[in-house]
Amino acid sequence: MAIKLDNVGIAVRDLEAAIAFFTDLGLIVLGRDTVSGDWTDTAVGLDGNHARIAMLQTPDGGGRLELFEYVHPAAIETEPTRPNEIGMHRVAFAVDDIDEALRIAARHGCHPLRGVATYEDAYKLTYVRGPSGILVMLAEALQKG
């Protein structure tokens, strides 16, 4: 059986704010839609499922995010995920300029949890708290090429 990762889905509080954040970082919107009906109830397992969605992709085509904002049932607010919690952890992006990525994130009110670290002279990396509390890892390779 062949298998490949298609996308990572993330429920957000404000779809427009999340799209603005991720497109400013460089992702491209592939499409948007509103989904509801029996097929979504069955696929997702929620009666009356109705959501606004957007599919975004990295410029190289190697990664996709599906963002969704629930219209019905109402979204459930939870505490933001912490780095050591079991379950969905974070989404990570390789960037060519971490300082520029952090300036972009800051324009959206998103800042590093603690700071920027260097891992074995290979990467500069950090976690930022993105829109809707999403943990986003940004990593810049120090050995270019």
Describe the structure.
The protein is an alpha/beta fold and 145 residues long. Helix content is 19%, strand content 35%. The chain has three helices and eight strands; from the N terminus they run βαβαβββαβββ. It has a four-stranded mixed beta sheet, with helices on both faces. The chain has a four-stranded mixed beta sheet with strand order 5-8-7-6, covered by helices on one side. It is globular, with a radius of gyration of 16 Å. The chain starts with 7 loop residues before the first strand and ends with a strand. The mean pLDDT is 92.
The largest sheet is: 4 strands, mixed
* Element string (H = helix, E = strand): EHEHEEEHEEE
Return the CATH topology of the largest domain: 2,3-Dihydroxybiphenyl 1,2-Dioxygenase, domain 1
Structural class: alpha/beta
Number of strands: 8
**For the record, what is the CATH homologous superfamily label of the largest domain?**
2,3-Dihydroxybiphenyl 1,2-Dioxygenase, domain 1
CATH class identity of the largest domain? Alpha Beta
- Tertiary shape: globular
Uncertain regions spanning at least 5 consecutive residues: none
What value does the average pLDDT take?
A: 92
Major β-sheet strand ordering? 1-4-3-2
Oligomer: single chain
Fraction of residues in H or I helices: 10-25%
Instruction: Tell me the number of helical segments per DSSP (H or I, 4 or more residues long).
Output: 3
Compute the number of structural domains: 2
**Rg over alpha carbons:** 16 Å
Q: N- to C-terminal separation? A: 34 Å
What percent of residues are in strands? 35-45%
What's the CATH architecture name of the largest domain? Roll
